[in-house]
Amino acid sequence: MAGGTVLSTGVQYLDQSMTGQQTVFVRHLGNGSLDGSFGTNGFITLPDSTGLTLIDSSDRIYLAELNGTVTRMSSTGAVDGGYAGGNAVTNVHVNSMQFDSAGRVVTFGWVLDGGARRGYISRLDTNGDPDVTFNTTGILFFDFPLPLAAPAAGSPLCVGTVQPGDKLIIACEVTPAGDTPPSDIAIARLNAGGTLDTTFGVTQP
């Protein structure tokens, strides 16, 4: 970050059952002392968040929330009320997030949709609104082609990355029929608009 400051983040669980959590941010100056210009004496806590963060070229901080939305903070830790942050999604689990070439936030994870576990990708425009140039809604629930099953039972891990040309890679734990979950990893590539890139990879038996 600017001036050689160092930002640390972590998730703090609020009880022994681990049902409530908050993200804790701590910023230090280059000499190791707390940065008093950040938050309250160098500390910030935000409830109901995943701990997944990004920092842009202006030192603004982006935090993925438990409901799939994204909070943006200024370089001093103030929440940016002008950043929309997208729409809340029920039963979503965000596992990773990245910027694309246009500075748009892309989040990857999985969602429980009608009893089925499905891959999840969301893209926000630079104002934090759902990017309607991605799957017309800014959100995509994704299923891998057969014979790969949907993301595995339990708590599957689905992570992603952004490639040149803003193509999106998503990788999820999956379970082919007859196997014990989770048994395999399935990887797919999507075009920038959210359609499946059929030039990538092969379908395994």
Strand percentage: 35-45%
How many strand elements?
13
Structural class: mainly beta
Would you list the SSEs in sequence order as H and E? EEEEEEEEEEEEE
Using the CA coordinates, give the radius of gyration. 18 Å
Overall geometry comes to globular
Unreliable spans: 146-152
Mean pLDDT equals 88
What does this protein structure show overall?
The protein is mostly beta strands. Helices cover 0% and strands 41% of the residues. The chain contains no helices and 13 strands. The chain has strands spanning 6-13, 21-28, 43-47, 49-55, 61-65, 70-73, 92-99, 105-113, 116-123, 139-142, 158-162, 168-174, 184-190. Strands 7-8-9-10 form a 4-stranded antiparallel sheet, with no helix packed on it. A hairpin with a 5-residue loop joins strand 11 and strand 12. Residues 146-152 have low confidence and may be disordered.
